[in-house]
Amino acid sequence: FREGGVPLDSSALEILERRLCVGVHNGLGFVQRPQVVVLVPELDVALTRSASFSRKVGSSSKASSGNQALVLRSRLRLPEMVRHPAFAIVFQLEYVFNSPPGVDSKVASVPSLSGVACMHTIRWAVWNPMLEAGSGKVTLPLQGGIRPNPSHRLVYKVPPASRSSEEVKQVESGTVQFQYSLSPEEHLDTTMALVHSSEAERQPSRRPPTS
Q1: How many CA atoms lie within 13 A of 52 on its CB side?
Q2: Hey, which end of the chain has fewer CB within 10 Å, N or C?
Q3: For the purposes of burial, counting CB atoms within 10 Å of the CB of 99, is it exposed (0-12), middle (13-18) or buried (19 or more)?
Q4: Is 78 helix (H, G, I), strand (E, B) or coil?
Q5: InterPro entries in the record, alphabetically (predicted)?
């Protein structure tokens, strides 16, 4: 907000990065520092790598037939994961925003600053795996708002629909989908895809991630 309570123009904000943080939590804290990977828009890469972050884009009248995706172009290994009911895997979706100069009068007065970057946690999910199964596919709902979360962070609360962009609306009703396997050394190996669907369609995507 600008001074006087006037909301900023959404076009003044730029998304620099979309990050996925994945870590093992033991109920008290993270066992190791979570791994951080960058999600890349589907239009920027060919879908030939290990995972996809996809969502169906709809309108107020009818759903569109096209999908948009953010691609995770790597496979994650979690050797710190053990077979214990207190251990869980935490997923955090983070956006890094940039506010161009001139949006904030204080920033605009400093010529050396080209913009102000800030990171916000958008959504999160938790999975308690049944590692007895050698491999499988999992779909989890992304959560947000004021409810407690494993990182004890302030998580983005979606504003009214009239003030939300299409991407924010899809994140609100999204899910995280991934495939996992247990290696011979009993290390958890995941091939992940964050799947965003409309509120009316929370089912897993019929197109599984490819590796």
Answers
A1: 23
A2: N
A3: middle
A4: strand
A5: NPHP4
Q: How far apart are CA 124 and CA 92, in angstroms?
A: 4
**Buried b / exposed e across 126-162, counting CB within 10 Å, b at 16+?**
ebebebeeeeeebbbebebeeeebbbeeebbebeeee
For residues 175 and 202, is the Cβ–Cβ distance under 8 A? Answer: yes
Spatial neighbors of 207 by CB under 8 A, at least 6 apart, are: 54
77 CB-near residues (< 8 Å, 6+ apart): 183, 187, 188, 189, 190
With beta carbons less than 8 A apart as the criterion, state whether 99 and 110 touch: no
The region of weakest confidence among 16-30, 134-148, 188-202 is: 188-202
